């Protein structure tokens, strides 16, 4: 028999940074599975710390005008660890950043799919909003390079098209124009810094209502 006890605390400034898990288990396979989960969580934290450090430097210093040493210091990781997770050149590191933005913000990982339920939509909006609130450089980085002719702009547009395709697969009644509007509504809810908690909840209800009106 197993005896598992979990407790955790989330730092609202950065998802998953503060967590504690106390485990008592007698079954080695279950314990190994738990340990593997902890490793995955730690790796996700490292990825986010590095990603957000790079984006903050991109905003403050300019595109690729930072050094790997600056990223490592800001993220509080070693350079070998940064190279291991993101690549050995600044351009390779940026490619990894863009891929992680696609996974973290748009859910474009190969194993992820959109959930069409109201509760799942609200949860996705809340979790993504928390990421943007903790790291406002994401919004600045996206808005700056999405508006300028550059390879980054082309990558963002390709990412958006994949996301719109994903939305239409999850909500089959949406037209191509509807997918653009849906994305815009969610983007506003996620990135608007002036929304109070109550206003955010009302915005989520309005988005769900709009979506049901399209069905």
Characterize the structure shown.
The chain is mainly α. The chain has a domain at 114-215. Helices cover 69% and strands 2% of the residues. The chain has helices at residues 28-61, 68-75, 79-86, 90-106, 118-134, 137-146, 151-170, 176-191, 197-214; strands spanning 3-4, 23-24. A two-stranded antiparallel ribbon has the order 1-2. It is elongated and about 50 Å long. The chain starts with a strand and ends with a helix.
Order the strands across the largest sheet as they lie in space. Answer: 1-2
Give the distance, in angstroms, between the N- and C-terminal Cα atoms.
48 Å
Q: For the CA atoms, what is the radius of gyration?
A: 19 Å
Largest sheet: 2 strands, antiparallel
Helix-and-strand structural type: mainly alpha
Low-pLDDT segments = 1-27
- Categorize the overall geometry: elongated
User: What do the pLDDT scores average to?
Assistant: 79
Number of strands: 2
Q: What are the secondary-structure elements, in order, as H or E?
A: EEHHHHHHHHH
As a percent range, the share of strand residues is under 5%
Helix content: 55-70%
How do you describe this structure in short?
This protein has 215 residues and is mainly α. It has a domain at 114-215.
Describe the structure using short key phrases:
9 helices; mainly alpha; 215 residues; 2% strand; 2 strands; single chain; disordered N terminus
């Amino acid at each position: 028999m197993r005896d598992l006890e979990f407790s955790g605390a989330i730092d609202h400034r950065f998802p998953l940074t503060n967590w504690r898990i106390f485990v008592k288990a007698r079954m080695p396979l279950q314990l190994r599975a738990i340990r593997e989960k902890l490793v995955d969580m730690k790796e996700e934290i490292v990825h986010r710390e590095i990603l957000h450090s790079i984006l903050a430097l991109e905003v403050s210093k300019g595109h690729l005008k930072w050094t790997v040493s600056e990223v490592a210091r800001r993220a509080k990781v070693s350079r070998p660890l940064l190279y291991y997770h993101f690549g050995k050149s600044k351009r390779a590191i940026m490619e990894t950043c863009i891929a992680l933005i696609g996974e973290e913000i748009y859910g474009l990982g190969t194993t992820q799919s959109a959930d069409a339920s109201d509760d799942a939509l609200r949860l996705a909006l809340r979790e993504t909003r928390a990421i943007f609130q903790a790291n406002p450089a994401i919004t600045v980085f996206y808005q700056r390079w999405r508006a300028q002719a550059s390879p980054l702009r082309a990558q963002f547009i390709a990412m958006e098209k994949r996301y719109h395709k994903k939305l239409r697969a999850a909500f089959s009644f949406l037209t191509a124009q509807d997918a653009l509007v849906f994305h815009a509504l969610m983007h506003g809810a996620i990135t608007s810094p002036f929304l109070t908690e109550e206003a955010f909840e009302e915005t989520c209800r309005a988005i769900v209502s709009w979506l049901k009106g399209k069905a």
